[in-house]
Design goal:
Helix content is about 70%, strand content about 0%. It has one domain. It contains 5 helices and no strands. It is mainly α. The two termini are about 20 Å apart. Helix 2 packs antiparallel against helix 3. It is extended, with a radius of gyration of 19 Å.
C-alpha cells in the first residue's frame, strides 16, 4: 500500500524520512498538536507547556532519516505484505463477515 501511495505523491512533495508511513504518522501527530494548542491557550495553560507542544510539532516536521525511522518502514513492509489468499479461496461465511466488518469501518 505504501508503495502505491508513494507513486501518487506529487514530485514537489518531499516525504518525511523518505517514508510514506512516517510521513503519514508525522502529519497526523502535527495536525493533532496544532488543533489542541489553541484549546490549551484558551484554557490558559502554562505558556511553557504550550510552547513545548508547538516545538515538538515543528521538530516532527524536520525529522532526519535514522536507523529507527528506516526500521519502522521495514517493519511496516513485512506487516503489510499480503498473504496471497484470494477472496475466492476463503470460505463464504468468513468472506461475508470480513466484508461486512470492512464496509462498516469505511462507513464510520
Amino acid at each position: 500500500m505504501c508503495d502505491y501511495i508513494k507513486t501518487l505523491v506529487p514530485e514537489d512533495v518531499t516525504l518525511t524520512c523518505d517514508s510514506v508511513l512516517v510521513h503519514m504518522f508525522v502529519s497526523c501527530a502535527y495536525s493533532l498538536i496544532m488543533k489542541i494548542v489553541p484549546v490549551f491557550r484558551q484554557w490558559k495553560m502554562q505558556i511553557e507547556k504550550v510552547d513545548f507542544l508547538v516545538a515538538l510539532g515543528e521538530k516532527l516536521c524536520n525529522l532526519d532519516p535514522t536507523e529507527d525511522t528506516k526500521a519502522i518502514q521495514d517493519k511496516a513492509t513485512s506487516v503489510f505484505k499480503e498473504n496471497g489468499t484470494a477472496w475466492d479461496e476463503i470460505p463464504e461465511d468468513y468472506a461475508t463477515v470480513a466484508s461486512e466488518v470492512v464496509s462498516c469501518k469505511f462507513q464510520s
